C-alpha cells in the first residue's frame, strides 16, 4: 500500500547528498506530512562521539564510519518496524555505505527508498560555509563529497536537483516520488 494509507510495509527513506544539499530541512518537512514519522539525522550519531572522534571524511575514519552507520541503520530499522516512516538523513555515499545499509534494511523486511539531493557545487559550498556551527565548512572537503554524488550511474534516477527549488518544493517533489514508489531502491 502507499504510504499514509492504512497498514504498509515498514519504510525507510535514505535522504542523502553532499553537504549543503538541504537534506535536514527537506527531511523535516517531509516528516511533518505524516501522522507517524521520524527524522533520523546520522550527523548526530557522529557528533555524540566525545573521545576518539575522527572527521568522517578522513581516510583513517573508516572503522568509525562503519560502526556509526551500523548503529544508524539499527535505529532506522527499529523505528520503521515500530510503524514510523523513517527518514534517514546523512551523507550516505554509494560504494561506501548505501549498498550495505540498503541491503541490511531490505533483508529485515523494510522497504528502502533513496533520494539524492544534488544542487550545484557552488550552491553546496555557499550553503555549507555560511551555516552556523557546522563542523564541515572546508570547501575542498565539500567538493570531495560533492564529487562522490556527481556520477551515480544507475542511481542517477534517484537524483533531485535542489539548486533551483526551495525546501518546500523539494520536499513536495521527494514526497510525491516516495508515495508513488519511484524511489524504491531494490537490492
Q: Can you walk through the features of this model?
A:
This protein is of the alpha/beta class. It has a single domain, classed as Rossmann fold, CATH 3.40.50.300. It has seven helices and five strands. Strands 2-3-1-4-5 form a five-stranded parallel beta sheet, with helices on both faces. The longest helix has 20 residues, at 62-81. The radius of gyration is 16 Å and the shape is globular. The model has no long low-confidence stretch (mean pLDDT 89).
What percent of residues are in strands?
5-15%
Supply the CATH class.
Answer: Alpha Beta
List segments where confidence is low: pLDDT < 50 over at least 5 consecutive residues. Answer: none
Mean pLDDT: 89
> CATH H-level name... which superfamily?
P-loop containing nucleotide triphosphate hydrolases
**Side-by-side strand order of the widest sheet:** 2-3-1-4-5
User: Distance N terminus to C terminus?
Assistant: 20 Å
Q: What is the architecture at the second tier of CATH?
A: 3-Layer(aba) Sandwich
Number of strands: 5
Measured as a percent range, the helix fraction is: 40-55%
Tertiary shape: globular
Largest sheet: 5 strands, parallel
Topology:
Blueprint: E1 11-16, H1 23-31, E2 37-41, H2 42-47, H3 62-81, E3 85-89, H4 98-107, E4 111-117, H5 121-129, H6 139-147, E5 159-160, H7 167-180
Parallel strand pairs: 1-3, 1-4, 2-3, 4-5
Helix pairs in contact: 1-7, 5-6
Amino acid at each position: 500500500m502507499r504510504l499514509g494509507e492504512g497498514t504498509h510495509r515498514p519504510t525507510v527513506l535514505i535522504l542523502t547528498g553532499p553537504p549543503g544539499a538541504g537534506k535536514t530541512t527537506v527531511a523535516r518537512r517531509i516528516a511533518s506530512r505524516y501522522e507517524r514519522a521520524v527524522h533520523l539525522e546520522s550527523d548526530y550519531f557522529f557528533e555524540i562521539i566525545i573521545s576518539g572522534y575522527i572527521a568522517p571524511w578522513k581516510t583513517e575514519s573508516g572503522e568509525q564510519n562503519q560502526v556509526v552507520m551500523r548503529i544508524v541503520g539499527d535505529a532506522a530499522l527499529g523505528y520503521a518496524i515500530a510503524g514510523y516512516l523513517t527518514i534517514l538523513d546523512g551523507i550516505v555515499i554509494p560504494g561506501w555505505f548505501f549498498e550495505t545499509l540498503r541491503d541490511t534494511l531490505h533483508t529485515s523486511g523494510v522497504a528502502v527508498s533513496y533520494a539524492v539531493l544534488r544542487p550545484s557545487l557552488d550552491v553546496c559550498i555557499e550553503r555549507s560555509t555560511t551555516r552556523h556551527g557546522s563542523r564541515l565548512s572546508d570547501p575542498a572537503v565539500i567538493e570531495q563529497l560533492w564529487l562522490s554524488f556527481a556520477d551515480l550511474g544507475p542511481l542517477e534516477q534517484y537524483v533531485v536537483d535542489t539548486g533551483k527549488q526551495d525546501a518546500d518544493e523539494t520536499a513536495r517533489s521527494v514526497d510525491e516520488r516516495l508515495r508513488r514508489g519511484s524511489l524504491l531502491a531494490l537490492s
